[in-house]
Amino acid sequence: xxxxxxxFLISQLLNFLGVFAEKVKDDSxxxxxxxxxxxxxxxxxxxxxxxxxxxxxDKIYFENENKQGSIKNRxxxxxxxxxxxxxxxxVTEIEPFLPLNNFLDYGNFQTSVRWKSSFDGGVAGGAGQQxxxxxxxxxxxxxxxxxxxxxxxDDDLYNLVSGQKINYYWQxxxxxxKQKLLDEEDFDFGFSxxxxxxYWRHASGSQFSKSIFNQKDNSFGKDKFEDLVAAxxxxxxxxxxxxxxxxxxxxxxxxxxxxGSKGIGKNAYGNNFYIGSGIVYDLAKDLNLLLSYTTxxxxxxxxxxxxxxxxxxxxxxxxxxxxxxxxxxxxGKITNSYGASPATGLLTIPSDNLPLYSAxxxxxxxxxxxxxxxxxxxxxxxxxxxxxxxxALIPIAGTSQFKFNYDNSGNIFGSYGYSLSNxxxxxxxxxxxxxxxxxxxxxxxxxxxxYLAENNLNYRLGGKLLIFSPQKDDLYWVTLxxxxxxxxxxxxxxxxxxxxxxxRLNNSLTFNISSKYFFSxxxxxxxxxxxxxxNLSDNLMLIPEINAxxxxxxxxxxxxxxRYSISPEKSLDLxxxxxxxxxxxxxxxxxxxxxxxxxxxxxx
Length: 604
What we know:
Blueprint: H1 2-27, H2 79-89, E1 93-95, E2 98-99, E3 109-117, E4 130-141, E5 144-156, E6 167-182, E7 190-204, E8 223-233, E9 236-239, E10 244-254, E11 272-284, E12 287-299, E13 303-304, E14 310-311, E15 315-325, E16 328-335, E17 356-363, H3 377-382, E18 400-407, E19 412-421, E20 424-433, H4 445-452, E21 458-468, E22 477-487, E23 492-504, E24 509-520, E25 524-537, E26 540-550, E27 556-567, E28 570-579, E29 590-603
């Protein structure tokens, strides 16, 4: 249930930031900042061309336009160059403990949702052990940056310890301040000071296992600790040209080296000096290559094995960052860093040293969005989605999408999504419970017991990214969608991914093809879905759907829905289906019984 709290917190922050951004944008539009004054003159003068300017107290307008020197005047940049320069500055770090000498413009901010995970769940099972985090960056000035970090992990240790599954938990709330000391435009290199302070809550053990911090006896029980931890670093960067930047970061992390009264000697990580290095190379105007390698120098450690032996391991990362547009950036990397804050970023996954995947998305409210021609009323109605087959349309930026589903078997689901951009929708919450299922095929028994059995509550977080669209003169819509989450009862999770294709054949008929992939520690397999939207009248639409899973005991389910539109933003679906449910995994599993259900769809 902690993840629900994080999602709720993130949604409230995003809503606040969105409103704040709109207010600042309105205030800075110039309508209220120009002071008009009538000037009386004694003699009439010939009419001349008049150039109106609103200076808004910006000193850059009063600088010498013919200024010479090595510093490039930003007012001489083209709009495209200015957007490119601004987007590069939003890459403020390679890892939380490897900050770059990049800063946001004064008053600008950006938010990032980040996800670190192992490729499998280890002895805990599931799709992987995750450490999600949320980061807010704010430009206090053009040369200082304030950041907030929220991160949390809750799972069993990746490996058995003394033959037992042992739970661990950590949660970090922290802030960081970065101040530029030397500007690379004035010197041959950039140099900054970065400090962070964090409140770190961590725990281990349960009523069924001993704590990893208990080395004196075999008694079971949970040990909980709360500590203030910190980090300090001095990033030194050199930009060799517009595309290539190198980075050296000496730093130190301050973590406790003993916890509780049942340790023998050091039973925690301790303080660590480190030397980090990194490279940022622009493969293209909107694509960056990110590489880093960091060596912990001690005296503390950043790794422990299944025998609770502590030692030091180098930390690496490599991957790509893509600025989809000036408003949205995504990043994918391989790394063995499991921590997601400046003080914990040096730490490997508890009980092992594994390559992990890191997936990040950054939202910049002030960035320019991709322009799309607006959807018409029928397309708005289609953008509500289907029942068990999703489509590739995304509501315009700033639109909230809410769906509620219930059927006569007792399945209940609800979801909320928010379009951060015209081309990206964040699914902030997708939550629900399967009930009274009778799945066909004995091969589904493991899936049923893990994700669909009694008392299940599945909550998920995801997003949709628009790649092609007729709204920008492409032939059809293509969208990538993925979601992650877990069952609250079994604490097991899975990854669900889709490639969505939507074809508008004419004013009355739209066709969808969705290739789907389900990945978990229990089982992994693909599937495919087909659906169409047939307009029967101005406010009535028929939606037939079929899904087939691609595995040994292939499931095949079908759905028939009738959609009534109250308005382009509100609709009601009545459907008849033998799919297990409408949430991700339920779309590609077959129930032996058909059920009647209802969908409520809202855009606002």
